[in-house]
Design brief:
Helix content is 34%, strand content 23%. By secondary structure, it is α/β, with parallel strands linked by helices.
Length: 408
């Protein structure tokens, strides 16, 4: 996240004091933070405090003549990578939903062309009021990420949903919202559609990605052509959809998607152990191309002068099949199958043989492993869906929609 630019709009509510800790966390990650305080927010936290923490000017007034001579409100709204509203009060979200621009904060929100994330904070009755529910639905439909508030005791003495999420939770959500800028799998693609962003909130999903390497000697391995791009794209899309994601990655050099917990492994047995350690989970998406076989590793480099080595072969664990039989079997278990002929037929048989819920199959004789695009077939007990060729990121997004429907 180093170098990312956050415009933080602080609404007026008792939870405004948590903005100070949020700024500290963002700065610790190497982000730059510019703060905007509404008039009401200044009753709870001072501009001087946030200026000291952000090491930047704090903005409060739409009619600052110097800034407006330079169209400062337009510049502020366009220079950030992400606009964050925390706390987002009921009044502020109502204005956002209706396009009202009567102060600096709401004018910025109406003028911005950047992604917006809102963290609500209000009384439980206000959060549950029909007007607020309509406003939240409107904002999400418009592509704004609206987090779910925490539940607990409130400053007013009541108990229920409406508390501002803790700063570390907002910090993680910011990471997920910026994920498409941090992942080098398919740079430049648009962000995950806002209406899907929080559908998997509270779900834990395990993803495996990349190849495994089975050592032959200290310098040689048994490997395959998997790049890890599809698995990493799925992990990133799941995180953007609100899930807590554990990514078990074979030896690849891809950047970790924002908001994803990554465990690096090399061999099939290491991958199996990492998956077992990550359980329990609501779903597991096993994208990795796991080597079927391993050999006894030589302690010294094998010399070609001695001729072809006699290798002792051993079958690797079947992570998908064993997870399907596990007492901690996820509610939804998805496998992947790379085939070179009759991909659908082989995948249909594999789904039954492995005992998983879905198989995502692709013909690697057509779409070579390591490429940027994929044409897949989704095999379930209800039949087969054949998807058009699309980018791996779009495959990930479409699959995540299916996963969200299945876990709803």
């Amino acid at each position: 996240m180093t170098g990312k630019r956050i415009l933080l709009i602080v609404g007026g509510g008792i939870a405004a004091y948590k903005a100070c800790e949020l700024v500290r966390l963002l700065k610790k990650d190497g982000m730059s933070v510019r703060c905007v305080l509404t008039h009401a927010a200044q009753k709870f936290v001072t501009p001087m405090t946030l200026a000291a923490l952000s090491e930047d000017k704090v903005y409060t007034d739409l009619f600052d003549l110097k800034d407006e001579a330079e169209m400062g409100h337009i510049q502020l709204s366009r220079q950030a990578d992400l606009v964050v509203v925390a706390p987002a009060t009921a009044d502020l979200m109502a204005k956002m939903a209706q396009g009202i621009a009567d102060d600096l904060a709401t004018t910025l929100l109406l003028a911005t062309d950047k992604p917006v994330l809102a963290a609500p904070a209000m009384n439980v009755r206000m959060w549950q009021h029909a007007a607020t529910r309509r406003n939240v639905a409107t904002l999400r439909h418009d592509g704004i990420t609206v987090l779910e508030p925490d539940e607990g005791p409130m400053a007013c003495g009541e108990f229920g949903p409406g508390r501002l999420p803790e700063p570390d939770a907002i910090h993680a959500a910011i990471g997920r919202a910026l994920a498409h800028q941090d992942v080098d799998v398919l740079a430049g693609q648009p962000d995950f559609a806002g209406k899907h962003v929080q559908r998997l909130l509270g779900k834990h999903i395990i993803v495996t990605a990349g190849p495994t390497h089975e050592p032959i000697d200290p310098v040689r391995v048994i490997a395959n052509r998997s790049s890890g791009k599809q698995g990493f794209a799925i992990a990133g899309a799941l995180a953007q959809a609100g899930a807590r994601v554990t990514l078990v990655a074979g030896p690849v050099s891809l950047a970790t998607p924002a908001g994803v917990d990554r465990i690096n492994v090399e061999t099939a047995r290491e991958m199996q152990a990492a998956v077992q350690t990550a359980l329990p989970s609501d779903a597991a998406v096993l994208v990795a191309a796991v080597a079927d076989w391993r050999v006894d590793e030589a302690t010294e480099k094998l010399k070609k002068e001695k001729g072809p080595p006699a290798l002792n072969w051993h079958k690797n664990p079947d992570i998908l099949a064993e997870l399907a039989q596990s007492a901690e079997r996820p509610r939804l278990l998805v496998g992947f199958a790379a085939e070179t002929e009759t991909a659908v037929e082989h995948a249909q048989a594999k789904r039954v043989r492995k005992g998983c819920d879905w198989i995502v199959a692709n013909d690697v004789a057509v779409d070579k492993m390591g490429g940027e695009d994929n044409r897949v077939h989704l095999i379930t007990e209800n039949g087969t869906e054949s998807w058009a060729r699309m980018s791996k990121l779009d495959v990930a997004r479409k699959l995540v929609e299916k996963i969200a429907d299945a876990l709803a």
